[in-house]
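Task: fold both queries, return tokens.
Query 1:
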Amino acid sequence: MARRGSGLRTAIKVVKAIDRANKQAARETQRKEKARQRAEAQALREHEKGVREAQRELKRQVRQQQSAAKQAFKNALSNANEEYQDRCEERAALRKQFIQEVLR
């Protein structure tokens, strides 16, 4: 006839199974938390990268605008100088013409 146990072994097995399940759940929770933290850190890095790129683009646009304004100023100055030279030449031609008229 088989000996009947007091159920202690079964109770120990159940307690050990519960303990293993508890440890596994704690490891899984920790794994999920680390994954969440990594995802959050990645999102933060991507956001900061986007901000830096936007700042770089803004600086580039400002430099382009300043360069365009400087070039426009140079062009306007050059055009004004050419117009001045043209007026000077016209006046010189008129003076010569007037002198020629007077001398005749």
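Query 1 returned. Query 2:
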Amino acid sequence: MLVEEALARIEATQGTLNAFRLVRAEAALAEAEAADKELAAGVRRPLLGVPVAVKDDTDVAGEPTAFGCRGEFEPVAEDGEAVRRLRAAGAIVVGKTNTCEFGQWPFTEGPAFGETRNPWHTGHTPGGSSGGSAAAVAAGLVPAALGSDGAGSVRIPASWTHLIGIKPQRGRISTWPRAEAFQGVTVNGTLARTVEDAALLLDAASGSHARDLHRPPTLSVSDAVGREPSRLRIALSLKPPFTAFPARLRPDVRARVVALAERLTALGHDVEEADPAYGQIGLTFVPRATAGIAERVREAPHPQLLDRRTRETARVGRLLGGAPLRLARRAEAMLHRRIGALFETYDVVLAPTTAAPPPRIGALAQLNGLGTDRAMIAACPYAWPWNVLGWPGVNVPAGFVDDTLPVGAQLLGPANSEPLLVSLAAQLEADLRWHEQWPALEFDGAVREFRPPAAS
């Protein structure tokens, strides 16, 4: 039984990787038994009986949603809309994965649950904030998982664990019971080893709740897998957007991204260097992100247990939550026009996902607020502008640096361009076969690889 195997893999790795905040063993086995009966009766649904994981910012009925925080949390009464849709497709949620506090940082560590580790090198972080989901998929514990992305939090851990990470159009996957998340910068997305599995999970989870603020048109993304894209005009953008602190692309990461650009040229696409007109887009991101944190802190049942950096960010968010926030929200339409002008010349942007490989465990967790901001921007200056815009992006593996540390690149498009991005990612995957590489992990003195069946 697929679920039994997933639960066994989770148990075997939890002491090493610590990917899960909670595991629904008893409930998942009961749901798997019901799925087996449906299959025997001839019922077919896209994910019937497939074990998946969801990040612990997503409501699962009967379970708490702690979102990386310390303290006791009451179980929620209902599934979030994304989980409801996954269940309707037949998926079985085996557990909720670890995330840093309120998803703020590109590492998955904290006093509430310890350190989540990278399957490719357990001395390093898998990234964040969807680090638990990324570690679970990269290690083969589940074939696919949901994460959320507010400044790269699906794409960054996908990059650092050699996965496909899809950040879809804002609203493509509902964030209900919240009409929008973190003032619209955060969306739900998918992580998987293959483009096909990431697209399948995206289609299964997609759809709007009646009270969502953002309701993009319906798309079938899976249909784009295996559909050869036409000859595309691709802008290779290596320059980081303007940030308050210095950010420099490491030469070895640059080399991996440029190598991807060369493969795209070999596949028949036209690639040339060009950068989006980002301007001072950061001035619109900060009020939205910090006001979103302030909202979560107001709702927290144990505010005294929150990280000092969280409380500092919430104070900034309260200061910026009036006129600066309103101006930031209004600026989005102008940014769409200015940055979107690039897509009059190009079809897709190829950019690094991060400027550096995954840091060591603990390297960022003990810093103060300013130090954490500096370190985050130095390592991850590329992903967050697409959260302001609300447009889709897909991380694809770009190879390894320092022998064992994965890095990735982003395929970025305008509104509702998921099918194009997925088609291009699938073409690269067929050429480079990155999904055939697996991390080797040591358990009980033996080196093992877990290779679950594909979700598809």
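Both queries returned. Flag for query 2: Residues 282-299 form the longest helix (18 residues).
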